[in-house]
Amino acid sequence: MDFIGAKLAVFLGDKVLVVLRDDKPDIPFPGYWDLPGGGRENDETPAQCALRETEEEVGLKLEEIDLLWSRSYEAEGKRSWFFVTRLPADMERDIRFGDEGQRWALMDAETFCAHPKAVPNFKSRLLDYLGEKSVDLWE
């Protein structure tokens, strides 16, 4: 099945990188906290989509080998992908905010998942990952 887009939860140390969406009434979830990612372009693979969008939105140039976890999700007959990467905290210095969204922040995953203004689908997908990870990758 084709897919429509992909998201990437980027952990920098123990914090997740989040983007405050623009506050425009013509977009889904205006003014909500989101994760890097977006719609598929041309014949991209899910990983290529997530990596391209992350570079465009926050300036982090990552590779497929950096992706540690992935899962596809289907809703209303449309498939999308969710990826997770864990990077050293000092890579925060490499963030270069793009032209989508109001600002970026680093947030505890638990805070993001409980936040009333976080995009609901991505809260539940991040919880799926957190529920499955069996060891701390930084230990």
TrEMBL record:
Its cofactor is Mg(2+). It comes from the Bacteria. PROSITE patterns: NUDIX (PS51462), NUDIX_BOX (PS00893). Residues 1-132 form the Nudix hydrolase domain. Keywords: Hydrolase. The keyword Hydrolase applies. GO terms for molecular function: hydrolase activity. InterPro entries: Nudix_hydrolase (IPR020476), NUDIX_hydrolase-like_dom_sf (IPR015797), NUDIX_hydrolase_CS (IPR020084), NUDIX_hydrolase_dom (IPR000086). The keyword Translocase does not apply. Belongs to the Nudix hydrolase family. This is 8-oxo-dGTP diphosphatase. It comes from Epibacterium ulvae.
